[in-house]
Amino acid sequence: MTSSTESPKASATDDASPAHHNHRVISTIFEHIPHPHIKLRKKNAPKAIDSGAKGPIDRFNTFLGVKITEGVGTMWCAYIFAALALVSLPDAYKGGTATLIQWIAQTFIQLVLLSIIMVGQKIAGEATDKRAIDTYNDAEALLHEAIQIQKHLAAQDAFLQRLIDELCERKAAADGEQSGKSS
């Protein structure tokens, strides 16, 4: 005879004990399915520069391009360009207003501002890279916390299962005593 607290599926003819039946109930409450990105996240950590170069010529071109960009994108290079542009200033001044305006627009501004703009872009890019790395680290920390929560929940599930098993054993013992007294 089944009690009112047992599942309708559980009966005296079931092969599973009440504790085993309850274990099946607890284990089906939640099934953790990890996100597919988790496997890839360690391999794909943020990088400052990803050249994607395949062969030796591509690697050399990437290396040279990065080095030239790093060199031109400094204030020291802007100072050198300004000094270089100032060499031709006397001739531009002698040529009159039109020549002077052309010198300012075509020589000084383009030559000097090129480096200054690159310095600004480099600083902005570094700030963006820092934000991206901080965001990645924040996500990493949140993932760690989520894993800790999952472990905590698993420990609670194990504890609850132990309590359920103990209650089922006590109930079975009490039912056995009831059956023995009623015979």
General description of the model:
Helix content is 75%, strand content 0%. By secondary structure, the chain is an all-alpha fold. The protein has a domain at 53-175. α4 packs antiparallel against α6 (97-182). The radius of gyration is 37 Å and the shape is rod-shaped.
Helix tally equals 6
Shape estimate: rod-shaped
Distance between the termini: 14 Å
Specify Rg, calculated over alpha carbons: 37 Å
**Whole-number mean pLDDT:** 78
The succession of helices and strands, N to C, reads HHHHHH
Please identify the structural class as seen in this structure.
Answer: mainly alpha
Total strand segments: 0
Beta fraction: under 5%
Query: What's the main sheet like?
Result: none
List low-confidence stretches: 1-26
What is the helix content? Answer: over 70%
Short description:
The protein has helices spanning about 20-25, 35-40, 55-70, 75-85, 90-95, 95-180. By secondary structure, it is mostly helical.
Describe the secondary-structure layout.
Blueprint lengths: L17 H10 L9 H5 L14 H17 L2 H13 L1 H6 L2 H86 L1
Helix pairs in contact: 1-6, 4-6
Supply the key terms.
mainly alpha, disordered N terminus, single chain, 183 residues
